[in-house]
Amino acid sequence: MSVAAPPVALSPRRRARSFLWSCVSTPVNAALSLAIVLALLYWVPGLIAWALVEARWSGPPAGCHDAAGACWSFVGRRWPLILYGGYPEGERWRVDLLFALVLVAGALLLSRRVTHKGVIGLLLIVAVPPLTALLLLGGVAGLTYVPTTRWGGLMLTVALGGAALAGSLPVGLALALCRRSHLPVIRGFAVALIEFLRGVPLVPLLFLAMTVLPLFLPPGSDPSPLLRAVVAFILFNGAAMAEVFRGGLQAIPKGQFEAARGLGLSPARTMALVILPQAIAIVTPGLLNVAVAIVKETTVILIIGLYDFFNEIVAGLADPQWLQGGAEVLNTGYVFAGLVYWAVCFGLSRVSARLELAKERRA
Amino acid sequence: MSGAEALASAPRNWTRRRLAAGAVQAAVLAAVALVAWLAAGNLSANLGRLGVNTGFGFLGRPAGFAISQHLVDYSESSTYFQALEVAVLNTLLLAVVSIVLATPLGFALGLARRSSNGLLSALAGGYVELLRNLPLLLQLFFWYFAVLRALPAPRVSLSLPGAIFLNVRGLILPRPMEAPGLGAVLAALVLGIGLAVAAIARIRRRRAQSGDAPMPRLVVLALIVAPPILAAIVVGPPIHWELPELHGFNFTGGLVVQPEFVAMAVALSLYSAAYIAEIVRAGIDAVSRGQVEAARALGLRPRTINAKIVVPQALRVIVPPLGNEYLRLFRNTTLAAAIGYPDLTLIFAGTAVNQTAQPVEVMVIVCACYLAINLAVSAAINEYNRRLGRSYR
Question: Which of A44, B3, B203, B209 has its CA at a distance of 20 to 30 angstroms from the CA of residue B266?
């Protein structure tokens, strides 16, 4: 085995041929390939048997006790809890609306035919989150009030992730712009805040938001645990976004600023009309990577006792009823949670990689 | 406006702009001060209402809780300050062990990713894509609850080569104990290092004078290794291993690593290895093809090309992001709070906050510890980058 530089682009057929040849090019490579193929032949059928053939698809928890495969009935029986948590049954259409909204927004942003994605993105950041919060919380326009303590499952993950994403984008942009300011006071505050938020890990920040933040607010104003967590998430990821935006702003050549000023544009208009449109195109892959990180991070709210998608599954696994089901219930729960997170994160990181590639081709 | 007029009005414009800048900054300062003043007022009102103590005096008081893993002496009667020491050491131990495990695995995966064998490369790519796109907490729970908690009881432990046992109580290793030869061997090691340094200096001097003097690496290595080995043969081995033994239902002797630590170290190192693999791959890609082709044209062997051409140039690209990855791993140790490994976050942000009812002071300490370690490592990385930049000129 030796280390080679990255392969150059080839047609699919030639790529397949060169792949096959690379597996047997030297005796060492051939032996290595044989070992890998044998290992795969040993593991993959077992995995398929576990997931499909030997699996229990329905039945009570006790039915999984002697199963030699996955216990998918765990997922099936706890499905409503995994999706909605403790959200009242009669009001779950509001959550369905949220899921539909996420799907539509994703489709709009991903489609190659849709134009004016900037406007859609701005709407999603500015107008949609407050309206969605009102829809889910209720208490207005005849909707029943549902306190955030009853939120849970996939719905809580989507709400927290969406709020963190929509909130951290403007915070990150503002911090990045302040960091570039020529006014020392503003720059100093921005640098201090970014360094603090990047130096302290998310879990202590969450504890900070849970225990210390309420002490600094007027007595009697008692923000819900979810709101405190959202604040911590927005600040933490805002700092990450700020570093991404900073990279994009630094990539804009100085001539762009000078040309805009030469045309008589004010500094604010230079930023809004000339610099930011170019910078945002540059940083989109980086911002998507932060979005992947946000999706993975939402699981951390388990530590402060909120029941998101992952914690709802963990709680199901700790349910005495399912504890009787044996070890395969445990494996099934983690595999199912892993499949869902992996699909979302892998999808997002593929989009990010696609945009990155398109950017390199343009350059 | 003519050119001359513009020139004449320039200073006035300049002054006006400076005044505006000053006004904006003063306004920002005033706003921040106002918010801070309001927050301080709320804080004192809230603390007064709750009737709690203030100040850092609690650090000298007995903590009164046990910590399941402590590297230094600690008991329930120890003070909060000693608990802080234990917690910081536990965090650092976890980070260091995970880094030591993650680095070789990450390098191996990164090299495999660029292997000439397509199948191996695809397999390494699969590992990276699988682990990078799963939440770390999920991986941690999988290792802790589905793997380690499902291990057999001590009586039917899994036995690994080298008197290592794995069971539901954790990982049991042979414990290294001080033996009579330790002092002599350490002294011999110091002597050996001294000899090697002197030899290298001598060879360098000769090289500077004559322009050519071989650097016999094996001889230098032998200078370091030989004295301690001789000392060990003459005086006796420096350490002896206390082997774990099964007595009744549990092991006695040996070093017991608690399952929480094992799960954290496994999850952190496997997760970080995926990121390190990508860093290493990018480092290899950064060495231009022409370099390898030129070396090949000069007739260098593949091994020499890797050692002398690819690795030195790739390392310059790899080391800075590698440092940042280590920092990320360090920050990720805080997930320990989820499975009960007694790290800084669990002991202080968790237990100490509840017991002292002084969240502000405790959280200031916690944040300061994380910030200090983080800033120290970042400073080291920046210093390395600065030197790297200078050596290019």
Answer: A44
